[in-house]
Design a protein that fits this description.
The complex is a heterodimer of chains A (about 250) and B (about 850).
Chain A lengths: L6 E14 L2 E14 L3 E6 L5 H8 L7 E6 L2 E2 L5 H11 E4 L11 H11 L5 H11 L15 H14 L4 E5 L7 H18 L2 E5 L3 H5 L3 E6 L2 E7 L17
Parallel strand pairs in A: 3-8, 3-9, 6-7, 7-8
Antiparallel strand pairs in A: 1-2, 1-4, 4-5, 9-10
Chain B lengths: L5 H16 L4 H32 L7 E5 L5 H9 L3 E13 L10 E9 L10 E3 L2 H6 L3 E2 L7 E5 H7 L6 E4 L2 E11 L13 E5 H6 L9 E8 L2 H11 L8 E4 L6 H48 L4 H37 L13 H17 L2 H8 L22 H16 L2 H33 L4 H12 L1 H35 L7 E6 L1 H13 L3 E2 L3 E11 L2 E2 L23 E5 L7 E6 L10 E5 H7 L6 E6 L2 E13 L10 E3 L1 H4 L5 E7 L2 H12 L5 E4 L1 H39 L1 H13 L4 H38 L8 H27 L1 H8 L1
Parallel strand pairs in B: 3-9, 6-8, 16-21, 18-20
Antiparallel strand pairs in B: 1-10, 1-11, 2-3, 2-7, 2-10, 4-5, 4-8, 6-9, 7-8, 12-22, 12-23, 13-22, 14-15, 14-16, 14-19, 14-22, 17-20, 18-21, 19-20
Helix pairs in contact in B: 1-9, 2-8, 2-9, 2-10, 2-20, 8-11, 8-12, 8-15, 8-20, 9-10, 10-12, 12-13, 13-14, 13-15, 13-22, 14-22, 15-20, 15-22, 15-23, 20-23, 21-23, 21-24, 22-23
Classes of the chains: A alpha/beta (about 250), B alpha+beta (about 850).
Chain lengths: ~250, ~850
């Protein structure tokens, strides 16, 4: 498989089938997708359309039933859990709807975690800097339960950027927040993204948030039904996919 | 796992530090601490109690172990006992006429006395109290002594009365004269035999030979007393036991057939059982807490994995986290166990003066092993599941595998439990029985609890809103709840079980010694005196046994087969051919009615009109002599011989303070033989003066005073009861922790549910009541199931282990259900209280 230098993520004929009570259920129909470095991509669609499943396969959290996923030229679909972990440690960051901070670690320790896992010696300094960037330098020794939802998500954003990942996956990052806080979080996310030059792939229901991405793809019943470039630097659509251009 | 990753170590410590401070590990910490502390204190404490009790009770035989022989034993026995660091004393016991020298040598007062010649160390256990001065005699005081000096003797008070002698007088025994140097007030090993011959005289061991009473063919017994540390005694016993022949007896206090021995054996069994149940409860608490620990950390593991942490890293992180937590808990457990033991012993010091801290090594090793086993075996499955948590859990809700009834997952825990029980009881049979019984009970309980959960729906449809919600919740969480219900049930059941058995034991003991337990035995009542005694008893309203006639006789043949022991030399000859006899004269009696506390187990009691000669034989001696229903026994009564058929076999409660007999005949057989009579009475303090006045008129009646013995037995029972209470408290703590751990186990899920209900507008009162009802219902159902399971277990224990009659315990059913509902309801409400307050809910839904 040939991937150009700018292509960070390439997916071909990706499917996912699960067994539910002795029946096979196809959650993802064959999907082809390519994401370039530093691109921002929103995956939209109704609940149960397969967005989150796609995200989990792209991030190497799960293995596809068939098809290929290449992240930074690495064939994730051929890797075992351990190898995929290594790839995630080097190249991937996450932001979740439920924030998913480790409850028994302080804000600072939560942010430091990925940097420590990636063996960065200056984890603490980096973490403090990022907490300052997200406006929480005075809350660094607070535990998640002592922070509001918006504050927890800001810590999560700081945590996501600390290891300078090549790609950041965000699953409904504002889904659990009120609109004002959500907007603030989104600003923070896109600003840092720009600052770090990270590729951003986010799953969202929020049209406004999706609109801030360079490209949107829409899922429906496991199919990728549309692929929209919202900004000038559009991306070539893979002709073999069953996606249609709107 | 290779070398530890420093980051994993750092992260582990960090997590541990924060989680400990935030109280997230409290339950698991407490569970391990309690398991370890329970084992430490119980193994230390109950063995201390056992040792102290046995030691104290050993004063009844004046030693830890006694060897009685009809011939002097080989010198090597004493050499070996010294080698085993035991102290020993030797005695020769015999009966002889003694004379009080008088001016008329042909008319010296004389008396048949029982002589005990003893070496200096006697008694090795217990106290020999002798009044050594006239003042002491007058004040009824005495001092602690051992053997008398050579040339001196100590005598029974009865003897001074009967021979009209006093302190300082001389007494002739054999060819020697001895000075009476003291009057015996209390003998530690006064034998409780109604038919011992004559008042006691204690003389120095060396002097017995000087009396020249020991001649070839003299009837005497040699008694060797040994005392020392338990382990030494056991080793010595292992060496000696194979050499003990049939004419010798080698016994300790527990092998005696008396009330005290039975009390001690039952108490020991109870203490072991309570300790084992305590360990099971603590282990269940660890298992429950370990499962919760694993579930609580799943999201963190998923996050770690999503961030790219390797499996090795996660393993190191959590194994280290768990190991540190376990080690700290084990350490704290050992310290707590030691403190509990100290406190327990301090509290009981007045009751158990012989208890001390004893050997700490055994409890230490046992409790640390318990802690490690609990931490490893009960956590291995939940920890493995935790480590295997998929990183996908960060975006998909975690569906926890349901606890299934039959699964390999339970094997490590069950094996660990078996090892623990074995370590503690060193009894394969009991451990396996407890485990298998437990597994069966749990299986039945799980099935039952699911049935109960399913039945809930129809009941709830018309109930109030909160109740409806509670029942809906119970149903929805049926799987978690049935696990919860089973742990509640086990905890309540084990507690009920201990309570019931404790009560039964205490009642059993108390009924052994009711308030009007006979404290005086009257022996040698002559025929004309019988009416006088009866009149005295009636006038003073004294609680007395029936007056039994006693005829001495010898059993000489069974079914015309001569018994091989010649009565006078019975214990000298080993029984190497033919049937073995009893070897001494028996006290025979006749009666028309079956005596109290005697039960026919085979055959039939005779009718008054029955003129055929018949005998009813006691079960134990029937077994020993191999006598069966319908056999013919031949008795010698003086020069007369008669045959009689065995028509019934009886059990006798030897612990009852009343005259008991091996052989009871019908009236026709014995009525024409001259008899003396025997009776037991309870003489109260108020009647004592009257009684003493009465008995002075009948110097030929022997009075046996068993007050001291009864008091000693009462005090042992009191001590045992207190020890049992103390251990019960420890076990109740373990049980409560299981309940708390189990309530806590579902908190996360409850938190979510309550938040949702609150968001939907449910009022605080509704939520509070629904939580309360849900837990009360769980506790109540658990109490009900526990009572049923307890009843089965108690039945088995009573009939198989404690040798008691089975009974039904309605009171404890009510207690089980009531206390179950109340405690579980309260714990549930308390645990949810924080969740039920508005701010906590608000925070969660934001």
């Amino acid at each position: 498989m040939n991937i150009t230098v700018e292509t960070l993520l390439k997916v071909t004929q990706l499917t996912k089938t699960v067994k539910v009570e002795h029946k096979k259920l196809t959650i993802l129909q064959p999907i082809d997708l390519e994401v370039k470095a530093a691109e921002t991509l929103a995956i939209v669609g109704s609940s149960g359309s397969g967005k989150t499943t796609l995200l989990s396969l792209l991030a190497g959290l799960d293995l596809p039933s068939s098809g290929q996923v290449y992240l930074k030229n690495q064939p994730l679909h051929q890797f075992n859990e351990e190898q995929r972990s290594e790839i995630r440690a080097k190249h991937v960051g996450f932001i979740f709807q439920q924030f998913l901070l480790i409850n028994s670690l302080t804000a600072l320790e939560n942010v430091m975690l990925p940097a420590e896992l990636a063996n960065k010696s200056d984890a603490k300094a980096l973490a403090l800097q990022l907490l300052e960037d997200v406006g929480l330098s005075d809350r660094s020794d607070h535990f998640p339960s002592q922070l509001s939802g918006g504050e927890q998500q800001r810590v999560a954003i700081a945590r996501a950027f600390i290891a300078k990942p090549d790609v950041l996956f965000a699953d409904e990052p504002t889904g659990n927040l009120d609109s004002k806080t959500g907007e603030h979080i989104a600003d923070l996310l896109f600003n840092l993204n720009k600052q770090f030059g990270t590729t951003l792939i986010l799953v969202t229901h929020d049209q406004k948030l999706a609109a801030r991405c360079q490209r949107q793809i829409e899922m429906e019943a496991g199919h990728l039904i549309s692929n929209i470039s919202t900004l000038a630097n559009s991306v070539e659509i893979n002709k073999s996919s069953n996606a249609k251009v709107i | 796992m290779s070398i530890l990753n420093p980051l994993a170590v750092k992260q582990s410590l960090r997590l541990l530090n924060h989680e400990v401070r935030r109280g997230e590990l409290t339950i698991i910490f407490l569970a391990i601490v309690l398991a370890v502390a329970t084992v430490f204190s119980l193994s230390g404490f109950s063995s201390q109690i056992k040792r102290a009790l046995v030691e104290q009770s050993s004063s009844f035989i004046a030693a830890d172990k006694v060897l009685v022989s009809s011939r002097a034993v080989d010198e090597n026995v004493l050499v070996q006992s010294a080698k085993h660091n035991l102290s020993s004393a030797q005695q020769i016991l015999m009966s002889s006429m003694v004379f009080a020298p008088s001016d008329d040598p042909n008319n010296s007062p004389m008396l048949l006395a029982s002589l005990t010649a003893t070496t200096e160390l006697y008694p090795l256990r217990g106290e020999l109290l002798v009044s050594l001065t006239k003042k002491q005699i007058a004040d009824d005081n005495a001092q602690l002594v051992h053997a008398p000096k050579s040339g001196e003797i100590w005598v029974d008070k009865k003897l001074t009365r009967r021979l009209n002698v006093k302190l300082g007088d001389l007494l002739e025994i054999g060819v020697r004269q001895f000075k009476i140097a003291g009057v015996i007030k209390q003998l530690p090993d006064a034998s409780f035999s109604l038919f011992t011959s004559g008042p006691k005289i204690i003389l120095n061991f060396k002097d017995i030979y000087a009396t020249e009473l020991i001649q070839p063919g003299s009837r005497l017994s040699y008694k060797y007393l040994f005392a020392g540390k338990n382990a030494d005694i056991e080793k010595f016993s292992d060496w000696l036991t194979p050499q003990v022949n049939e004419t010798q007896r080698w016994y300790d206090i527990k092998s005696r057939q008396n009330a005290l021995a039975k009390t001690l054996t039952k108490a020991e069994k109870y203490l072991s059982l309570a300790s084992m149940l305590g360990i099971i409860l603590a282990a269940v608490a660890v298992a429950v807490a370990a499962r919760r620990y694993s579930q609580r950390h799943q999201t963190s593991v998923a996050v770690f994995k999503a961030m790219g942490a390797s499996i090795t890293y996660i393993k190191q992180l959590y194994l280290l986290h768990w190991a540190l937590l376990s080690l700290v808990s084990i350490f704290v457990g050992v310290v707590c166990g030691y403190l509990i033991q100290l406190i327990g012993l301090a509290v009981m010091v007045d009751y158990l003066p012989n208890a001390n801290n004893g050997d700490l090594f055994y409890p230490l090793v046992l409790s640390v092993i318990t802690g490690l086993l609990c931490a490893i075996a009960f956590a291995i499955v939940p920890l493995t599941q935790l480590i295997q948590t998929s990183p996908l859990a960060v975006i998909r809700p975690i569906v926890n595998t349901k606890l299934t009834l039959f699964s390999w997952q339970h094997i490590p825990a069950l094996l660990a439990l078996l090892v623990l029980l074995l370590l503690f009881s060193q009894d394969w049979q009991l451990s396996i029985a407890l485990l298998v019984g437990g597994v069966i009970i749990v299986s039945v309980l799980i099935l039952l609890s699911r049935l109960v959960m399913n039945a809930g729906r129809s009941v709830g449809s018309k109930a109030g809103q909160a109740l409806q919600l509670a029942i809906a919740n119970l149903k929805r969480r049926a799987n978690e709840n049935s696990v919860q219900l089973v742990s509640f049930t086990i905890a309540i059941q084990l507690l009920l079980l201990l309570l019931v058995v404790r009560n039964e034991l205490l009642t059993d003991w108390q009924s052994q010694l009711p308030d009007n337990t006979a404290n005086r035995f009257l022996i040698n009542i002559s025929q004309p005196q019988v009416t006088k005694v009866n009149a005295f008893v009636q006038t003073n309203n004294i609680h007395a046994s029936v007056i039994y006639p006693v005829v001495l006789g010898r059993l000489s043949a069974v079914n015309n087969e001569k018994l091989n022991n010649d009565a006078t030399k019975d214990e000298v000859k080993p029984a190497d051919n033919g049937r073995r006899g009893i070897g001494r004269e028996l006290s025979l009696t006749w009666r028309n009615e079956l005596p109290n506390q005697n039960k026919i187990v085979n055959g039939k009691w005779w009718l008054n009109s029955d003129t055929k000669p018949q005998v009813s034989i006691e079960q134990g001696i029937a077994k020993r002599l191999n006598v069966k229903l319908g056999d013919t026994l031949t008795f010698h009564l003086g020069s007369e011989i008669f045959d009689v058929e065995v028509t019934s076999v009886r059990t006798v409660n030897w612990q009852s303070m009343q005259p008991n007999f091996y052989m009871i005949f019908n009236q026709q057989v014995l009525q024409d033989y001259p008899a003396t009579y025997i009776a037991s009475l309870f003489v109260s303090e108020a009647n004592m003066a009257e009684f003493n006045k009465f008995i002075v008129h009948y110097p030929t009646i022997t009075v046996l005073d068993v007050d001291a013995m009864i008091n000693q037995l009462r005090s042992v029972i009191k001590q045992v009861s207190i020890a049992i209470q103390f251990i019960l408290i420890l076990v109740i703590l373990a049980g409560s922790l299981v309940l708390i751990a189990q309530v806590q186990a579902t908190m996360e899920e409850r938190q979510r549910d309550l938040a949702i209900l609150r968001t939907l507008g449910a009022k605080g009162k509704l939520l509070r009541n629904s939580v309360l009802y849900e837990f009360v219902a769980l506790g109540f159902i658990a109490g009900f199931l526990a009572s049923a399971a307890m009843e089965v277990a108690v039945y088995i224990l009573q009939t198989r282990v404690f040798d008691m009659t089975a009974s039904f315990h309605l009171k404890f059913w009510l207690l089980g259900m009531g206390a179950g509902g109340l405690f579980v309801g309260l714990m549930g409400l308390l645990s949810c209280w924080r969740l039920l307050t508005k701010t906590a809910l608000h925070r969660h839904v934001v």
